[in-house]
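Supplementary notes for students who missed Thursday's class. We covered one full example, reproduced here. Read the sequence, then the structure, then the short commentary at the end.
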Amino acid sequence: MTRDFPVPAIEDWQRLTLSVLRRSGRADENTAAGDAADLLATTTYDGFPLAPLYTSRDTTVPDGLPGQAPFTRGGGLGGRWDVRTVHTDPDPVRTAAAARADLHGGATSLWLRAAAPEQLGELLTGIPLDRTGIVLDAGTETDKATAALLDVAARQTIEPRVLRGNLGADPYGAFAATGIEPELGVAADLAAQSVTAHPELRALTVDVTTYHDAGGSDAEELGCALATGVAYLRAMSDRGIPLTRSLDQLEFRYAATADQFATIAKLRAARRLWHRVTEVAGANRQSAQRQHAVTSGAMMTARDPWSNLLRTTLACFGAGVGGAGAITVQPFDVALGRPDESAQRIARNTQLILLDEAHLHRVTDPAGGSWYVESRTDELARAAWEWFTTIERAGGIGTALRSGLVADRLAATWERRATRVARRQDAITGVSEFPDLDEQVPARHAVPPAPVGGLPRHRYAERFEELRRRADGATTAPVVHLVTIGRTPDHGARVAFAANLFAAGGIRTVTTAADEPVPPGAVACVCSSDRLYAEQAAPVTAALRQAGAAKIWLAGRPGGQAGVDDHLYAGCDAVRVLEITLDDLGVPR
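Structure (token representation):
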């Protein structure tokens, strides 16, 4: 038997949503149904709103149909993206073994981030350069690394024209990361060499993950990418390289995060924007942007590092759906130092599962046509173009970096982001939410020092992890007493909330009934319902003061509660609470 179901209208959703908002206290009787969506909207770090519901009223597909240029994946291998593994170990013997294992396990290219030019010969021993893409990352020694790579190819009797990968010349990226003044001439010379001698081996990388790691937003990352790409086109034009050949020399490297829709929109917007740049520059053919997506280093945690597996899988999914031509999944323990063999294998296999079992590469632009994704792509592209033109008006990416324009903008965004992280509004699983105080963190490995100078590098979890290190170093494990009033239904939810918050700073909790003593100097947190607070909180807090409690928190924010020092509530500054609590417990800074 079939049954006809009514077709819901947007007005039905608004009415039902408003009733829920009224029950929760977020709306009152004067709130109109049409305002329900506004009450649930959030704002991105780029300043545009994200609605809770998108319909055909909200967006149109710009610049053609989904799946058509400039949305299609570029640079893939027969529809598959390039499985690119990263190697950061400065030891050439270990790196060579890891590289061979990756290639045997299904990787298609190698990103060598720590290899010195003089080590490339030893490192690439046994690596078939005619079948393996090599991506260099030698900074100011890119020309030496290129010469070493070509020397290895000659010894393997490989025709230079079949070499593929990227030489990694990125003078402005290195300038942003290290503060070392860029040498555009060297990069342009390498591009000219690639155009004539080995056209499948691109010379230039536009790596904007540095801006992401400094706390930048998606639009700020994209705007810096456009400004850098345009600067490199100008440098190649000065060397007499035709525009169409110059475009072929560029690969863009973006950060992919655990916000899968943000990653999808970012990669799609990047292709739209670059397509517009090539049109304005006068390209007589469409030039797809070659994109290398790298799972974000800023989102990785040193605490509960296994939760990074969830983040990197989501990021890889977003990058694949978003159409990246190459993807690198960072090993889950990368925040601890040099990744071990198991973490490297899992990182590689994450991509292979999404390719060969989920078949993500078999659908072109699968997010195309989604009202939400199309709207977010469009808003992001507009915000990024505005930032790009701001940089250009300031004199270009080099001038913007030297003047502090870029650094100041990123610092302001990081401050907003750090505030939301501290308030647990941007939750970090395993760190600010659901931390495990009994976890056994894997041993750290030796890791090359970070570059000195340039933009700062942040990880979102860094302030909570510093608090955990402080708590771990205490002579006696710090403890807070959760003082309960009433039965479990009265206090259970707030006990769980408070315990989770204190654990984010490495502080254990013990549950104590209101009629039980607490030791002198203890930090206490009273937990119960608003009703029982009104009836019993005052005598309970008075008794705690009499017992010598050093600090009294109250879980919730009912108002009018005398005798407590402060309140714990959803959206409070958890980092501040934890710093104060560790101070009160005598834990050294």
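Commentary. The chain has 20 helices and 15 strands. Residues 60 and 374 are 7 Å apart (CA to CA). If anything here is unclear, bring it to office hours.
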